[in-house]
Specification:
The complex is a heterodimer of chains A (363) and B (520).
Chain A (H helix, E strand, L loop, with lengths): L14 H9 L3 H28 L4 H6 L5 H11 L5 H13 L13 H36 L4 H15 L2 H15 L11 H8 L8 H8 L2 H38 L2 H8 L4 H38 L5 H10 L3 H29 L6
Helix pairs in contact in A: 2-15, 6-7, 6-11, 6-13, 7-11, 8-11, 8-13, 9-11, 10-11, 11-13, 13-14, 13-15, 14-15
Chain B lengths: L9 E3 L30 E6 L14 H10 L4 E3 L6 E3 L2 E8 L2 E6 L13 H14 L12 E8 L2 E6 L7 H5 L20 H7 L6 E7 L3 E6 L14 E6 L3 H10 L4 E3 L4 H8 L4 E3 L7 E6 L15 H14 L2 H8 L4 E3 L14 H5 L9 H10 L6 E7 L6 H15 L3 E7 L2 H11 L5 E10 L22 H9 L39
Parallel strand pairs in B: 1-12, 1-13, 2-11, 2-12, 16-17
Antiparallel strand pairs in B: 3-4, 5-6, 6-8, 7-8, 9-10, 10-11, 14-18, 15-18
Helix pairs in contact in B: 7-10
Subcellular location (chain A): Cell membrane
Main location (chain A): membrane
Family (chain A): Belongs to the binding-protein-dependent transport system permease family.
């Protein structure tokens, strides 16, 4: 659903006239179509997850197959209804999902919905932090690389970008930890906050689970500073993954924009190169960033599994890894479905924003 | 208190059952801790890689859960600091009144933290509940000898046993099925959710839970109404912090974010921490054994192989026993956090001997190539023997190094070639269950024994600032070993179809067989 614009801004390549002809509707219709597409997307994802999880057998056997005698195992399989035809289970599962019932985890007997809400906020916080890092690093450096095209800074930044998105996130995380926590001792090793901060934040009434937000709400600035300190390394490790992509994308688009007529016109009027880049060229170049951001949310959620594991950031990714190890497929199914829904919704939102910014995408 | 000013910054448990005993040497938490201390000794932060399966005693039989339960639930019997014998906890008296009857009289005026009365009805409910739920993760198997439990009056319960004179039974009451729960809170037929338990406050142990984030953070507060064996808490509370990665645990204790670290640090980490002046590492003898076991059917010359020959199979096992250099494994892999053992019973236990020391190797504990060659030759084995060695890393990341070294030692002799493989734990347990309906015999019994701190030597309550206890878990393992389980052991086996001979100390394996995930 995400529309990725590869062509330089302004270069319609003959597509736009045709698109305009075929659109036959405005922004409202575009949003409606995009919204309706969410449902089949989620449906397909849920179906895939359900059947893929059943490839290795039923969840009870997967989780407890080694620890129960055959008769007790069978008893539990029957009690849970996993002995019924797969399609019956599937439609029942769809019905449960429709009512918000994701079941209970097999290994620690928790309501999956409760588990998702508990840990979802931590993953949301990490993703937001990482996104900020990606934007703060990727966009300025991309503009700098474009501005210094084919010169030493450009070459260095291009290599840096490749390193960013080619380095496995867990490896980057370990390097960062080793450098800034172990050797330099500047930042915490792991976790989301010090024990004292966590106790203070979890004792709040109706906490959001996003620690920096809870710390701000409670006016606990010491906890806020502590939470930020804990957030730096995980956010950088995960954010750099996307920053590299942003950097290259911004660079390419700014270079394309810098060759447009209106930039030439500005240049001929004596506007400085710095101003041309930072004021006139970068805005059109950012449109692809918005669309790519939708895709990057999925990448980030994938990266969050490894980042959370590396930094003991107890979010959905951390739990997903644990439940996978324990073969708790009910929990895994719940987490994966939630992540799928998040990705679908995020892409929808990004599509809307892209359409608002650039009417050409409403074809 | 900062790292630089801390004299004893933290105590490191050697990945062990007695980890909590080692918290004794720490003071109130520093930067990362819950330094809300007062005259009572402050609070302390303990880090662990253990996990809580559930706070419901009917649904867990694992170290992580039991450690928390030990703080919050009362027991009929418990272990007094520094002793190895189960003694009355919330019971006034507990003894055999006939060979098959064990009678317990409760102290008067007991109550839970939620205000509910704790009487014999709760006790009966607690044990019957464990049995009736019979959760696969639960400790019901430990009550196998309990025929029934009855309340004769509000303060008295009588356990009727199937087999008389069960000297292990008091230890069972002080172990995993022993927590007494509030019958007004817990459902009789299903496991209760942790958050619901915490909200209902059915606690009557030394501590109550103040806040709870499962497998993240647990905050304990002293329970002023506790009347049990352990007495009043000597501090203002404690925080339990869970870690997934032992490296983070190690780094956090070094950086002062936690006061105590335990379960499970690698031997390398322990060796590293010993050189850190801010951290104090405690060591002591322990009861954990690591074994290699053989599948008698599929091993070389095994019963179901084309060349089946019991005498040759025996020779293969004996030759391996002659060749394994326990000292080298202990020093190179485990940095001497394990020591060689030549018995099924660790030598610290009264009456234990080392009969295998003279039986295998050069007679003094070192390997003997000559004897290995001889035993194979005598059995008529003249060619190199191919063995398949399989391990799981469930019991620590050192397992890979450990068995790589075993492979090296065996192959270096020129008598064996070893196909070494590792198996992920869940697959391992499935294969073990499928392949080993009965327990296999051991070839290299007591390969290594973990050096560990027994509770009887240093109990946390004997030292200042100690908030948590994990009484008698080590002892329970030993006491229960002949009854239901083997302690934490590492084993290598050949998964494959067929049955296996049973080891001399092992009972029927399921449920509760050695290596079962619930036990570890």
């Amino acid at each position: 659903m995400t529309t990725l614009i590869d062509a330089p801004p302004g270069d319609t390549g003959g597509i736009l006239p045709a698109a305009r002809k075929s659109s036959g509707g405005g922004l409202g219709q575009y949003i409606l179509v995009r919204f309706l597409l969410i449902f089949p997307t989620i449906f397909i994802l849920v179906t895939m997850v359900f059947f893929l999880m059943r490839i290795t057998g039923d969840p009870i056997t997967a989780a407890m197959g080694g620890r129960l005698p055959a008769d007790q195992l069978q008893e539990r399989i029957e009690a849970a209804g996993y002995d019924r035809p797969i399609l019956v289970q599937y439609f029942e599962y769809l019905g449960q999902l429709a009512t918000g019932n994701f079941g209970r985890t097999l290994t620690d007997n928790r309501a999956v919905v409760e588990m998702l809400t508990t840990y979802g906020s931590a993953t949301l916080e990490l993703s937001l932090n990482a996104l900020v890092v990606a934007l703060l690093v990727g966009i300025p450096l991309g503009m700098l690389a474009a501005h210094r095209r084919d010169k030493a800074p450009d070459a260095v930044l291009r290599v840096f970008a490749i390193l960013c998105y080619a380095t496995p996130v867990f490896f980057a995380g370990m390097l960062l930890k080793l450098t800034f926590s172990v050797w330099l001792g500047w930042l915490p090793v792991a976790g989301r906050a010090k024990t004292s901060s966590e106790l203070a934040l979890t004792s709040l009434e109706a906490p959001t689970g996003i620690y920096w937000l809870d710390a701000l709400r409670s006016g606990n600035m010491a906890a806020f500073a502590d939470v930020l300190a804990h957030a730096v390394l995980p956010a950088v490790a995960l954010g750099l993954l996307t920053a590299g992509i942003f950097l290259r994308l911004v660079r390419t688009n700014v270079i394309g924009t810098l060759g447009r007529d209106y930039i030439e016109a500005g240049r001929s009027r004596g506007i400085s190169e710095y101003r041309l880049v930072t004021k006139h060229a970068y805005k059109p170049a950012l449109i692809p960033i918005i669309t790519v951001m939708g895709l990057q949310i999925a990448v980030m959620l994938g990266g969050a599994v490894l980042t959370e594991k590396t930094f003991e950031w107890k979010g959905l990714g951390f739990q997903l890894a644990n439940y996978l190890t324990a073969r708790d497929f009910v929990a895994v199914q719940g987490i994966v479905v939630l992540l799928a829904i998040i990705v679908a919704l995020t892409n929808f939102i990004v599509d809307i924003i892209a359409a608002l910014i650039d009417p050409r995408v409403r074809y | 208190m900062t790292k630089s000013t801390k004299t004893l910054h933290g105590a490191i448990a050697l990945a062990g059952i007695s980890a909590l005993a080692l918290t004794a040497c720490t003071g109130p938490s520093g930067g990362g801790g819950t330094s809300t201390g007062s005259a009572g000794g402050g609070a302390i932060t303990y880090g662990t890689t253990d996990k809580v399966v559930t706070l419901d005693p009917a649904g867990s039989y694992d170290g992580g859960s039991f450690m928390v339960m030990n703080q919050i639930y009362p027991f009929l019997l418990n272990y007094a600091p520094g002793t190895a014998d189960a003694a009355p906890d919330i019971a006034e008296s507990a003894s055999f009144t006939s060979p098959t009857e064990f009678t317990v009289k409760l102290k008067p005026g007991l109550k839970f933290a939620n205000g509910h009365t704790l009487d014999s009805s709760d006790v009966v409910f607690s044990f019957n509940r464990v049995m009736s739920i019979n959760d696969p993760n639960g400790p019901a198997s430990l009550l196998a000898n309990m025929e029934k439990i009855e309340a004769t009056d509000p303060d008295t319960v009588v356990f009727t046993l199937k087999a008389g004179n069960d000297q292990v039974f008091p230890g069972v009451l002080a172990s995993n099925p022993g927590p007494i729960v509030d019958e007004e809170v817990f459902p009789a037929d299903k496991i209760m959710d942790d958050d619901a338990i915490v909200a209902a406050k059915p606690f009557a142990g030394q501590y109550t839970i103040d806040s709870y984030k499962k497998n993240e953070l647990v905050n304990f507060k002293p329970n002023p109404d506790y009347q049990g064996l352990l007495g009043e808490a000597a501090n203002d509370g404690a925080t339990l912090k869970h870690y997934a990665d032992p490296n983070n645990l190690k780094l956090d204790v070094q950086q002062g974010n936690i006061d105590v670290a335990g379960r499970i640090l690698t031997a390398t980490d322990v060796a590293d921490l010993e050189s850190d002046s801010n951290v104090k590492v405690h060591k002591g003898p322990g009861g954990e054994l690591r074994y290699m076991v053989f599948n008698f059917d599929t091993m070389p010359f095994g019963a179901k192989t084309p060349e089946a020959d019991p005498a040759k199979a025996l020779a293969v096992r004996q030759a391996i026993a002659h060749l394994v250099d326990r000292d080298v494994i202990a020093s190179q892999v485990f940095k001497n956090t394990y020591t060689p053992v030549y018995s099924y019973v660790p030598k610290e236990f009264e009456g234990a001997t080392e009969p295998l020391k003279s039986l295998y190797g050069d007679g003094s504990g070192k390997p003997s190539l000559e004897k290995a060659k001889q035993v194979l030759t005598d059995a008529g084995i003249t060619s190199v023997v191919d063995v398949k060695l399989q391990y799981t890393d469930r019991y620590g990341t050192s397992a890979a190094d450990e068995y790589a070294l075993v492979k090296e030692q065996l192959e270096k002799s020129g008598l064996f070639t070893v196909d070494l493989k590792s198996t992920e734990w869940t697959t391992y347990t499935k294969e073990r269950r499928r392949c080993l309906p009965r327990l296999p015999a051991r070839l290299v019994p007591g390969l290594l024994r973990r050096r560990q701190l027994p509770h009887a030597v240093l109990h946390p309550r004997q030292l200042p600032g100690q908030p948590l206890r994990e009484p008698g878990r080590d002892r329970r393992r030993q006491q229960a070993a002949g009854h239901h389980r083997q302690g934490r052991t590492e084993r290598a086996a050949w998964p494959g179809p067929g049955s296996h001979r049973q080891g001399p100390l092992h009972p029927a394996p399921a449920p509760g067989c050695p290596g079962d995930g619930r036990r570890n």
